Give the backbone structure.
Amino acid sequence: MQLNEAFRIIEKNLGDINAELGFKKAEETENVLSFSGDKGIYRIVFDEETSILAFECAYENAGEKTEYNTTSRSLFELDSIDERDVRSIANEARDEINHLFNTKKKTDLDKIKMPKAVSRTKAKNGSISYDVDSLANRFGALYPEYKDEIKMNIAKYGEFLPETFFIEHGNEKVLDIIKNGTAAEQKKLFKMLGEIFEDGTNEVQDIIGVTILGEMKNDKDMMAVADKYMTEYMAGPVHEINKLTAKKNRFTKKLSDPPAYKPKKNKRFSVANALSNNQ
């Protein structure tokens, strides 16, 4: 199937939701199909090298400066897909559009409060530790464009699920800053992560060490950036974790295919256990 043919099928299947929410086609290039309206802008982007079709959106259309968030990705191998596969992906995109841009649902986000952060003073004196809510709060403060995604995560699960948020949304920002950010941006990122890691609970240390920084997968260039700004306390575990995440083993399989969400789940997957079990 040709990509332009796939785009035509997708556009046709999105016709009803676009009409309902006031979106009109804004642009179609060789690899991008985008729609915009009063509620924001979204686009479908095909990467020829990876055969990945990504759905990206933003509530504010700022032209070339628009900051898109990627909400989903699908394998889209043009030499093997058929019209049924394309319609299926279009249906998924329609669900995403309705979820993100439906006026009622967006208004509901205003009623959801951002998670509260533990105070720095209390964390430093040891009276209480930083938790995953603190990580969500500090991440949202540093990158305000992700606040809605954090709230949607809470709305969907009834609590903040850090693994889901960072795997689906936050890690993209973190890795982009490590790869392409300025020195000031990289320093701010690692300062925030370092503070929470050093005075955080085991759970939040796992999220930072494994779910977030483990995604560097021991890449030489990214690790060099990390080494500039990581504290000694955080550097050791992060290096050990990246030795594991760079390889395919049962540890990385668990990360790439985590168990289904269970609201009452108490057992935690810890960095310490992961390291000791894989030695």
